Amino acid sequence: MSNTKEITLTINEQVNQINDRIIDLSEQLPQLLSARKYSEAKLTVDSIYVLLNVLEKLSTIENELARLPELLSSLTQSTQDIIQLESKEISPKPSKIIKKPVKKVIVEKKSQEELVATQEKKSVKKVSKKSLRKGRPTKEEFESAERLPRHEQKDFYFPILEVLQENNGRQTGALTILGIKNKIGDTFLAGDYEFIGSNKAPRWQVVARWAQNKLKQLGLVTSLERGIWALTDTGKALVNGKIQFTPEQIDKMKVPITIS
Predict the structure, then answer these.
(1) Do residues 156 and 207 touch, judged by C-beta distance below 8 A?
(2) How many CA within 13 A on the CB side of residue 43?
(3) pTM: predicted TM-score of the whole model, two decimal places
(4) CA 30, CA 38: separation in Å to the nearest integer?
(5) Residue partners of 180: CB distance under 8 A and separation at least 6
(6) Are residues 179 and 169 in contact, defined by beta-carbon separation less than 8 angstroms?
(7) How far apart are the first and last CA of the chain?
């Protein structure tokens, strides 16, 4: 376990270095844009996005390391179960008259106790295969799949609006995603770090982009150009408290919000 602690410390050091680098690049970006060095600015944004992906992979490794004692305990228990099963098979077999009813009882017990669990596992496998065929899973697949604790789409509405507001109402999608991580990342749960879809993106990034699309449908956020997110006048009114809606209300809306 001491090796696990050393690896965790190394990961934390790398995470700190990467975060420092992302901050440096983020500070350089406005200067490059003001100097109209657009090619260099694009490379900077691409670098930030790559570093974000590395951070997510390091977080996944760290989470798996934290689960290592539990996995080892499970493996030990499985090994003991196999040894017990093999010892039963090696032991002298009872006579045919006694053996038949005993076998029937065991089979009936297993079918009754494990039927529900087996059906649930099959359901989860079907959802996983369907998700891989389509790419990103749908909301319905999220709900039917085995759930780990995680944030919902509605939890990202106001963080997106606030991050854009803090950056003069417009920003690249990559930097907005980074802003969301910095704002609420310390509240992320295990399910937020699951890799999903054909692109194997962290769940929280996928759900954040769903939330951005919902805000766009409601007229709160718009795309000025490819990759640039911006607040609309309605979005500014909402984040400034001039109009008031809860995340739950926003989640149920189907038509754009208008300012009366």
Answers:
(1) yes
(2) 5
(3) 0.47
(4) 11
(5) 156, 159, 160, 163, 204, 208
(6) no
(7) 62
Per-residue pLDDT of the chain (260 residues; tens, 9 = 90+): 556 667 777 877 787 788 778 887 887 878 888 888 877 888 888 888 888 888 778 777 877 777 777 767 777 776 777 777 766 655 555 555 555 555 544 444 445 556 545 555 554 444 444 443 444 455 555 555 567 899 999 999 999 999 999 999 999 988 999 999 999 999 999 999 999 877 788 999 999 999 999 999 999 999 888 889 999 999 999 999 999 999 999 999 999 998 87
SS3 per residue for 152-164: CHHHHHHHHHHHH
Q: Copy the structure tokens of residue 234.
A: 């309605």
Using DSSP, state whether 196 is helix, strand or coil: strand
Neighbours of 192 (CB within 10 A): 21
